[in-house]
Amino acid sequence: MADGPLRAAQLPPSQALEFLRQKLNVPTRHWDDLRQEAHARGFMVAGAASEALLADLRQAVDRAIAGELTIKTFRKEFDAIVAKHGWVHHGAPGWRSDLIYTVNMAMAHSAGRYARMTTPEALEMFPYWEYVHNTCLHPRPQHVAWSGTILRADDPWWNTHFPPNGWRCHCEVRVISERMLRQSGRMLSQAPPINALPWRNKRTGEILYVPEGIDPGFAYNPGKAWKEGKAAHIGPVPAAEDAGPAHAPAPHPAAPEPTAIRPGATPLHDVPDLHRDRARQESVLRLRDHPVGNVEAGVVPDAVRQALGSDTASVRLSGETMEKQIEKHGDLSEADYRLVPQVLAGPHVVARQDDRRLLLFHHDGQLYRAAVKATADGSENYLLSFHRTTKEKARKALRNLPILSGDLEALPEDVEADDDE
To answer: Looking at the record, which segments are called Disordered (predicted)?
Structure first.
């Protein structure tokens, strides 16, 4: 194929390494201390507030991008660095090292590809780009929908949608020449609409508008930000424990045309069941892979909503809760997490813990327990915990609690459960 040298799999690491090595080290306390384009000029690892720790982590990332470390050997390097500095970090070591490896590799290679694809010679030969979704374990429906979109290389859509477009996103951009376009019998696409949806930073309370289908923090083109020097001001992390971000917030990507903006998400329970439950399942699994932000995990029946004193049936799951899930109920499988929407939608037993908190029990060949709480103003509901249990443990949990609906004794017996209730 004529554009083979420009494909990601054959890209030499020189541009990717150049992208990494021009960055300044920025010690941080939180993952969002740097915003979007600022990552094009600043190297950070969330929670790595020590310059010495950050320098060692950066050296390991540099070696990985240079091809000296595989993900397996990077894990060993990470463990040694953590032990050397006594770093207490969020998430299990294997999960955290994999995340650092995959995100930095993806961003560096994305910037390198963009630099190679936007040389005058490349743009003359290949004036069109195609969005390509590659097969993965947990495909994002929106990314699948974008696959096959062919636009001019200078289309503004690429400013926010040049992959990766989220944690562990495997999408790429393929270059296309005039001849290739003619021979394929295909035509240029119309740029997909950029539906801006509100996302609330639970730590700061700040509301940001993020294009639908893109994870918070990924709505920018790392290569373009690097090439054009559009990164935000970068400064040292504040010393105070409750200090704010380490910089002035990066400018938000240019807003799309007003007709393309939909300022508010369509509730998932307003779309067909097949897509609704699949989308929720995939959202929960992505949050398990990277517990940041919050997602809609499911909806509860109207009777449960009323018992919660809530204005909405939607139940959200936060990254903070997922971190606790990983720590306390690490044996829960993908199949278990795929049942979360079902557990919320069809509880067999409902009990009240307090005015705005309920326990839900659902049997699906195994008894599951979930705790749901409504916020004080009733505007949101959150899933506080989810795990396997047994009737014996459920009886203890329900002791002295008002049962609002269902009969525990009518449910089948279980044979296994989490040890930590």
So the answer is: 236-273
- What six digits make up the tokens of 271? 């779309």
Are the C-beta atoms of residues 53 and 86 closer than 8 Å to each other? no
Bridge partners, residue 174, by sequence = 130
Say if residues 235 and 28 touch (Cβ distance below 8 Å): no
Q: How far is CA 148 from the centre of its chain?
A: 23
Q: What is the pLDDT of residues 35-75, one digit of tens each?
A: 778 888 889 998 898 989 999 999 999 999 989 999 999 99
Please choose, from the candidates 180, 137, 129, 138, the residue with its C-alpha nearest in 3D space to the C-alpha of residue 159. 129
Confirm if 221 and 160 have CB atoms less than 8 A apart: yes
Q: Residue 421 has what pLDDT?
A: 52
Q: Which is nearest to 302 in space by CA: 318, 287, 293, 313?
A: 313
Closest CA relative to residue 51, chosen from 80, 76, 27, 81: 27
Say what the pTM is: 0.57
Q: Is 405 helix (H, G, I), strand (E, B) or coil?
A: strand
Name the amino acid, one letter, at 319: G
Q: How far apart are CA 179 and CA 128, in angstroms?
A: 11
Enumerate the domain spans of the chain: 4-226, 268-410
Residues 213, 163 contacting (CB under 8 angstroms): no
- Report the chain's mean pLDDT, rounded to a whole number: 82
Amino acid type, 121: E
